[in-house]
Write a structure and sequence with these properties.
Length: 358
């Protein structure tokens, strides 16, 4: 297997996403940064425990912050703790902050990097499938506010993204499934990728490394292609919200006990039903899409969530316009409708259908 280099376009020029088959490649890239810059690490606690010898070789323990990645810690209190960590080590705007972990660690650490002294250098090392294909690309950072997910944040691009599929060998199966939720979304956004995923993603979590490299690489490119059209998330980038209006509401009602990507898988089913019910998607396409989406199990607790509560939670969606909740729908893989209004009766029916598929 070979290194995959993906060029990611950003407001500050292009940067490289290096995806290695082995962890040694990640270590070597990080050593290059340390050899010529002041570097501080923010590392997910589980990742630190699993890969401590690697970090011992890379950085002094005093320059490494171990972060407990929970939705409760994705907060302003955690930001202030990170600011103190950086301040006490004389971090300046030329320093590099290397954030290692999944989406929660990445979002929180990146927000700290983007706001400390109005911005320091940032390198992301995503260690979960969800972070590799989604949160490490596009420059979004943020923390939760009250019951709302990622409600306060910024747009801030890293200098580089560095990762390895080897990290996925120690990933909890539910976290791998959560990452696949975003991959399934990208499959619905791109017709060619849908055909590839229809062949490769059969419902099993046992996916070969070569296929993982391809799935991650193509997902990253699809997301980057969308982001380059709309960096500030004004409209075209809303395509990435496919399934998320349902998914975020599920997370909120479950008090974040349901993982993001698992909520997205259920949400994609709800969005497909809404498209079919409102005449956007034909019966034949709906049958094909639902069969694909139902290959992977989600979380049994979703079916016990109250439909009215899910609908109410949607009213807090960040992408509502003029007080109206908007949906992304597809007529078929690769063909999108963005910012579609949904009548309450249709949305409730879609939530009920979604729950029936769990």
């Amino acid at each position: 297997m070979e290194l995959k280099n993906i060029t990611i376009e950003s407001n500050n020029g292009n940067f490289n996403y290096a995806l290695f088959p082995a962890l040694e490649g990640v270590s070597a890239e990080l050593q290059k940064i340390s050899s010529s810059h002041s570097v501080f690490y923010i590392v997910d606690s589980k990742v630190y425990k699993l890969y401590k010898p690697i970090f011992d070789d890379l950085v002094n323990r005093d320059d490494l912050f171990v972060f407990t990645a929970t939705e409760e810690n994705k907060s302003f209190d955690s930001l202030f703790t990170l600011y103190d960590f950086l301040l006490n080590r004389n971090t300046d705007r030329g320093s590099y902050i290397v954030v290692v972990g999944g989406g929660i660690t990445g979002d929180t650490g990146s927000f700290a990097a983007s706001t400390f002294m109005r911005g320091t250098k940032l390198v992301l090392v995503p260690t979960t499938l969800l972070a590799m294909v989604d949160s490490s690309i596009g420059g979004k950072t943020g923390v939760n506010y009250k019951k709302y997910k990622n409600f306060i944040g910024s747009f801030y691009e890293p200098e580089a993204v560095i990762s390895s599929v080897k990290f996925l060998e120690t990933l909890d199966p539910n976290d791998l499934l959560s990452g696949l939720g975003e991959v399934l979304k990208y499959a619905l956004l791109d017709a060619e990728f849908f055909e590839y995923c229809s062949e490769k993603l059969t419902g099993s979590l046992e996916i070969g490394q070569e296929d993982l490299l391809t799935l991650i690489g193509r997902s990253a490119r699809i997301k980057n292609d969308v982001v380059t059209q709309d960096r500030l998330d004004m409209k075209a980038r809303h395509a990435l919200n496919l399934g998320h209006t349902f998914g975020h509401a599920i997370e909120s009602v479950s008090h974040f006990s349901i993982k993001h990507g698992i909520g997205v898988i259920a949400g994609l089913r709800g969005a497909a039903f809404l498209a079919h019910r409102t005449g956007v998607m034909t019966e034949a396409v709906f049958t094909k899409v639902i069969e694909f989406l139902c290959r992977y199990k989600t979380d049994e607790s979703i079916k016990r969530l109250d439909s009215e509560m899910i609908y109410t939670a949607m009213q807090g969606d960040k992408k509502r316009l003029n007080g109206e909740v908007k949906f992304v729908l597809i007529s078929q893989p690769g063909s999108l409708l963005i910012d579609v209004s949904g009548k309450k009766g249709d949305v409730i029916a879609s939530i009920d259908f979604m729950k029936s598929t769990i």
